[in-house]
Amino acid sequence: MAADRRTMIEITNVSKSYRRDSLEIPVLHSVSLVVPEGEFLALMGPSGSGKTTLLNLIAGIDRPTSGNVIVNGVDIGMMNESTLARWRSSNVGFIFQFYNLLPVLTAYENVELPLLLTSLKKKGRREHVEAALRLVGLGDRMSHYPKQLSGGQEQRVAIARAIVTDPTIIVADEPTGDLDRVSAGEIMALLEQLNAEYKKTIVMVTHDPRAAEKAHTVMHLEKGELSA
Amino acid sequence: MKIVKLVWKNMMRHKLRAALTVLGIAIAVTAFGMLRTVVTAWNVGVEASAANRLITRDAVSFIFTLPLSYKDQIARVPGVEDVTFANWFGGVYIDKNQFFARLAVPGDNYIDVYPECIVPPEQLAVFKKERNSCIIGSQIAERYNLKLGDIMPVDGDIYPGKWEFVVRGIYTPKDKVTDPSNMFFHWEYLNERMKDQSPGRANQVGWYVIKVKNPAEAASISQKVDALFENSPAETKTETERAFQQDFLASVGAILTAMNVISFVIVGIILLVLGNTMIMSARERTQEYAVLKTLGFTGWHIVGLIGGESLLIACLGGGLGLAGTFPLVAGFAAVMPKGWFPVFQVETITLILGVSSAVLVGILSSIFPIQRAISTRIVDGLRQVG
Questions:
Q1: CA nearest to A173 within chain B
Q2: How far is it, in rounded angstroms, from Cα B150 to Cα B135?
Q3: ipTM for the complex shown
Q4: DSSP state of A6
Q5: Rounded mean pLDDT of chain A?
């Protein structure tokens, strides 16, 4: 079935290492991966295996030491910082484990943040934000600050922020890692809905087997090497 | 929501810290404004100097007098338009702590050489006719509630005895740098008494004021005047009125320099206060800046957020401080012995310096946190625990 679909993410021989003082720490070794459009991929593996690093490379917030990362036909490794920032704002929705909402902004304002980088007027932004918050079931919590929301609600605000610009792909770094079982189930149902109904390509890093079950494909990373 | 709103919300995140920083800046700017006002007040005599006036005084010291006979010789020097003179009278009027300058001057031309002291012509005419009359500045008239025709009794000290002057004129200053607190009376009135009581002090003047036709010739005229009295018992030193005022200020030069230095040290202190606040704030928000960059915000957005917050705090503190400078200066002027500073007010240049300092501090304080926030890689920022 995957063969019928257009390639959304193509990673070829990507290696990544970090330098800590004089030490070179290898994280990924010649990883290659193809993710078709509309895929829901879960990346699993032990801590330090390179899952988040791979996710960061796909999201364009980190650069490979060698190899190519092509997303939606664009080699993002060739972009300069400002071009990459613009590309991220319109192509990638990022969901963090600890939500990472700005505490001084309301749910509405947090979701509105990515739209400030677009040419949308206030009215247009309002329509998008309200639609995104309604989609995640928080239409009645728009004026609430993060500290007034539960963990699950905060993560739903973060999902609304990730989808408000209608990105091509959504990357989620352990989106249920800080949630109780019920909230985690709700978040996974939401991601499934985004994938099934809105055809979003989702790449998710998780330790949680229950979360991984919701993905179409599960891949494992072990010591920087990928296996199905 | 606009970025500006986020700047405001960021500033208000720690209200107490923001309030204390704004207050700290406000106090420092008020102190800066106060010191600058004092320095400006000291320099007001220099500012009021006219380019076409020279001062001739005794070459040894200002305190020694010069013979009256010099007047005609000076008047004959080519390029000299008019010559007048003055004696420092001193004395006490009502209260020795309420100082103002009392000068014995020739009634016929002194006011003509100082056109910045505006006297109604009819008052000037009466003054010229009455030997014991005087002209006072508007500030003196207001301070002592003096009107035309009132008597001003003065106890002499340099020139001992009881002196009485009739107020026949009240001058108003042409501009704000002209001293409105002088008293001028007839030198002839003083000289007559000296002839009777202390003949050795008669026909002596404190300093000459030379009005030149062309200010560009000031240097050569000065040399010519001084050359006239070379090797005489009373050699002269002639210089422009500005140089004369600066010489006078040189006696308190060290204090003024110290005040100048302190005023700019205060700017440095503001810089440290705000810099510290901004560094703490930016460090606490390292993860948030990483999130913003992940969402697509660029380095320039981060510059706007941090720089905007720094400028906002600096400008609020600066504005508050400058607003506080006015009542402080007014209060200081009220309790200060009258006459210390004839012109004591917050000058435009002080306001400009205050605002510029606040803006400069706002910009400088944000440089390091901006550099740090921009150079931190997103992945490192996301790992940061706030």
A1: B382
A2: 11
A3: 0.91
A4: P
A5: 92
Distance between CA atoms of residues A126 and B383, nearest Å = 32
pLDDT of residue A1: 46
Calpha distance A85→B299 (Å, rounded): 9
Q: How far apart are CA A162 and CA A85, in angstroms?
A: 15
Give the fold, CATH level 3, of A37-63+79-227.
Rossmann fold (3.40.50)
Separation of CA A105 from chain center: 21
Identify the closest residue of chain B to A99 by CA–CA distance.
Answer: B291
**Considering only CB atoms, which chain B residues are within 8 Å of A61?**
293-294, 378-379, 382
Show residues of chain B in contact with A86, CB under 8 Å: 296, 298
* CB proximity list for B221: less than 8 A, separation 6 or greater: B54, B77, B78, B79, B80, B210, B212, B238
What letter would DSSP give residue B202? T
- The answer, for A65 touching chain B at a CB cutoff of 8 Å, is no
Average pLDDT rounded to a whole number, residues B87-97: 88
| DSSP letter for each residue of B309-373 | HHHHHHHHHHHHHHHHHHHHHHHHHHHSPTTS-SS-S--HHHHHHHHHHHHHHHHHHHHHHHHHH
